[in-house]
Amino acid sequence: MTLKSPNSSKSSKPLTQRKKEQKREVEYPYVDEKDIKIISYLVSGFNNQQISSDLQIPLSTVQRRTRLIIQSGLLQHNFKPDYRRLGLKKGMVHVYLRDGDMRSTAGKVSGMEGITSVSIHIGNSDIVADFVYRDSEQIVDMVSSIKKIEGVDRTVWSEEVYAFPMNPQSLSMPFQKLMGGI
Questions:
Q1: Sign of CA dihedral 124, 128, 134, 139
Q2: Which of 97, 108, 138, 148 has a beta carbon 3.0–4.6 Å from 133's, enabling a disulfide?
Q3: 176 part of a folded domain
Q4: Is the torsion defined by CA of 152, 156, 159, 161 positive or negative?
Q5: Is 134 inside any structural domain?
Q6: What pLDDT digit, counting tens, does each position of 83-129 carry?
Q7: Taking 80 as the threshold, does the pLDDT of residue 178 lie above it?
Q8: 51 near 38, Cβ under 8 Å?
Q9: Rounded average pLDDT over 133-154
Q10: CA separation, residue 17 to residues 11, 21, 24, 80 (Å)
Q11: Domain hosting residue 67, numbered range
Q12: For position 46, which CATH number holds?
């Protein structure tokens, strides 16, 4: 993977002027089919050794490309707890509003105990939040607190029973379409 600049042509402008303009330039990453496959495997939870073996690409190549993918910002490496191993259950709550004040309500929900993420959606529900809990009493308290927020019409929640592993090839298809059929 190489990074290429959209404005890499030589200029007759003074060096100081070019440096100012270069600071405003956006670096566009160039990705190929191998990068797309590596991204798909990384998102699926594979490590470099597994990717190398499965794709039959040298480990050093996978390591270098993974480093460049992360450095370019195409993929972010985030650590997350294994809630099940910590004795917690995971769930999701959908919040439906009657007043449409999504940002304010999302901010209030995000500050509640056990909430791990909050996002605003367009379509069915207005706000979707992920949460963790130990027992049903915590769910009752959380849902009750959300229902008390001004403008909340109703909530629907569910518990995650099992997270199904994703197939890396399935994950690469949208990337390939976005990248023009690589």
A1: negative
A2: 138
A3: no
A4: negative
A5: yes
A6: 989 999 999 999 999 988 999 999 999 999 999 999 999 888 999 99
A7: no
A8: yes
A9: 94
A10: 10, 6, 11, 44
A11: 2-78
A12: 1.10.10.10
Asked if 89 and 138 touch (Cβ cutoff 8 Å), the reply is: no
Residue appearing with tokens 């199904």: 164
Torsion (CA) 113, 116, 117, 123 in degrees, nearest 10: -80
Token pair for residue 131? 């949460």
| CATH, residue 150 | 3.30.70.920
Whether 7 and 72 share a structural domain: yes
For the entire predicted model, the pTM comes to 0.64
Give the number of domains in the chain.
2
The CB density around residue 171, as the number of other CB atoms within 10 Å, is: 17
**pLDDT digits 0-9 by tens, 28-68:** 567 888 898 898 888 888 899 999 999 999 999 999 999 99
For residues 69 and 38, the answer to whether their CB atoms sit within 8 Å is: yes
